[in-house]
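Recall the central idea of this unit: under ordinary conditions, the amino acid sequence of a chain determines the structure it adopts. In this exercise we apply that idea directly, starting from the sequence alone.
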Amino acid sequence: MARYEGLGVDIGAFLPKLQSAMEKRGYKIGHTMTGAASFLIEYLTPTKKPGVFGSKGTISVKGTRDNFAVIGIREDDEELWFIVEDTLIASAANPQAFRSHTEKEPVKMPATPTVRHRLPKSHANQLKRCQDRRVVQDVGLH
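Accordingly, the structure predicted from this sequence is:
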């Protein structure tokens, strides 16, 4: 799954462009379903033998023109990702906002506050004596 934001892609106009691009690359388009803000394409992958097709797959696009997701493409299917993203850039009102599905945002770790606990005086003295004993034992001065 990949999410695209800020591109300004008309989802309804994107479907025929994507179908055309896939057919030019040898994919056989089976069934398509459209909704108000989504579409689904069922396809057969091309093989090296003419007239013979490989596995069946689906691509689903859902969302609004500035915030949508492409679902159903395997991460290792580089050719299909290239077709989809190339068509996205060509269809975008704001292509500068494009970020490939392979560009991962760095995970930001939330800052953890440092909490210092103050030991009661009796505990602090016991801790100090234990540390002093260890130093004496390490040096060999018992």
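Residues 2-97 form a domain with the TATA-Binding Protein fold (CATH 3.30.310.240).
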